[in-house]
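call fold(seq) -> C-alpha cells
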Amino acid sequence: MSRRGRRTRRALEVGRVARRGRLMRVLGEVGAVGDRPATREGAVAFRAGLEELGTTFVKLGQLLSSRPDLLPDVYIQELEHLVDDVPPFPFEEARRIVDEEIGLEAFARLDEEPLACASIAQIHGGLLRTGREVVVKVRRPGIAEEVALDLELLHSLSSFAEGRSQAARLLQLTALAEELEAHLTAELDFVEEAHGSELIGRIVADHEQLLVPAVIHPYVTDNVLVQERIAGERVTEQHGLDPERAAVLARQLFAAYVEQITVHGVYHADPHRGNILLTEDGRLALLDFGLLGRIDDDTRRALGLLLLALAQNRADDVGDLILGLSLTTLESDEAGFVHELRRKLPRYHWRPLSGIRAGEALADLQRIALAHGIALPTSFALVGKTLSQADSVARALDPELDPIELLEEDGVEVMLRETERRLEPSNLLALAYTQGEPLLRMPRRLGQLASRLETGTLKVGIQPTGLDELEHVARSVANRVGAALIISALLVASALMARVNDTIAVVGFALSVGLGLFELWRILRTPGDL
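ret:
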C-alpha cells in the first residue's frame, strides 16, 4: 500500500476511535469547543482512546500530562495512569535483531522471557561471555515507520488548528507536535539514548549516592542497546531505610535534578518511580534515558534564576523571568499576572514536601500565565514535570525535606558556577565580540541615515496593531448594510413581479420577510455581529 493510502487508513482509524470516545464531548470538557464541565468519565475515555491508538498517541498523552494550562486537573490526573504496556513480540524476532545488529556470539546467555515490554522496545536479561550481567534493549520491528506516519498526521492537524484558532496559537499546538517528534525520534534512536545515559552518568558522578548503569560498548546500535544490569527495587514509602540515610538520598536526588537543569541544560526527563531503583547497597540507580530534555543556554540560565527567585519569594523577579521566557501579545495582562503571583507565591514557603505538591504548584503557575494571555514555552512545562516527578520520589524517601530551602541553598553554588563559566576566556571573548560588533557598525549606519535624510530617500514604515476590534466592527457594519440592501431589493422586485405573477411575488415577499426577521434576531442576540 502507498504511503498516502496508509495515511488515509490511519486517519480513518483515528477518526473511528475519536468518534467512539465521544471526541466532541472531550473537546468541550477541555475547553476547546464550548465550556462543558470536565468529568472523570470523559478523562477515562480520552486516556483509553490514546492507549488504543498506540505508541505515538500514548507519548502524546504523557506530554499533555505536563500541560495543566491545556487540560483540566481531572484529565491531567488520568493521563498520569497511561499504560505503555503491550504484548511482547516473539523472542525469535528479538534474537534475530540482536544477531544482525551485534552478533549472538557476544552472549553466553540471552533470556527468552522479557523483563519489560513497551510500545517502542522490550528488554531481555543476558550474560556476556566476559561474565557480566546485562540487559538488552531491542527496538520493536516496524515501530519507526508507524511513528513517522502518526507524526505526519499530527503535524497536519496542529497546523490546521493554528491556522484557524487563536486559542490553538496561544497553546502552541505546532510546538507541542514538534516537541513530541523530538522526543519520539530520540527514544527510537538507541545510539542517542546511550549518549544520554553516559552524559547523565558524568553529571551525577559527583553525587556518591546516585549511579547510572554503564553502557557496554561496542554493543550499541540504532536498534539494540546493551547496558549493565543493576539489581534493585522501586522506591516506595516502605523503603525500610534508616531515616537519616533516606534523607541523604532524597536531598541528593532532588539537588541532582536541579543541577542538571540549571547548570548543564540537560536532564533526565522521565524520572518516575519505575525509572529509579533503590539498589541493594542503599543507593539510587537512574534508568531509561530514552527521554532526555535539552534546553538552550539562555533558557537554562533564566530557569536557574527563576528557581532561585521562587525560593526567595521574589514575585516581581519571578514574573519578569517568566515573561522573558514566554510569548506575549498586546492582549497579555502582564500586571495582572504579577499581581496573582504576589498573592500565591508565599503559600509554598516554609513547608516540607509532605505539605507541598510541586506538580500542583507548577500547574497553578501555568494556568495563571494562560489566564492572563501569556504562553509559556514547552520547555517550561517539561522541566516542571521533571521536577514534579523527582519531588514525588524524594517525598517517598523523606517527606520532611523542604525543597524551597534546598533550592535557596543550592542557588548560591549555581550562581558561582555560572559566574565562573562566564569568566572563562573563550566565553568572555565571545560575549565581548557579540556585544561590541553592533557598536562598531554604528558609525556606518549613522552615515547611511544622514545620507538618506539629505537626499530625501528615507522611508519610514508603520505597522498598525490592536485594530482587530475596529476591523470586526467594520465587517459587521458592512455585512448588515449588505443584508439590508439584499432584503430591500427583494421587496422591490416582489412588488414589481406582483403585476406579472402573483405566486412569484408572494414567494419573494415571504423570503424577504424571513431574511428580515432572521437579521433582526441576530442583531438582538449578538450586537456587533452579522
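Residues 425-455 form the longest helix (31 residues).
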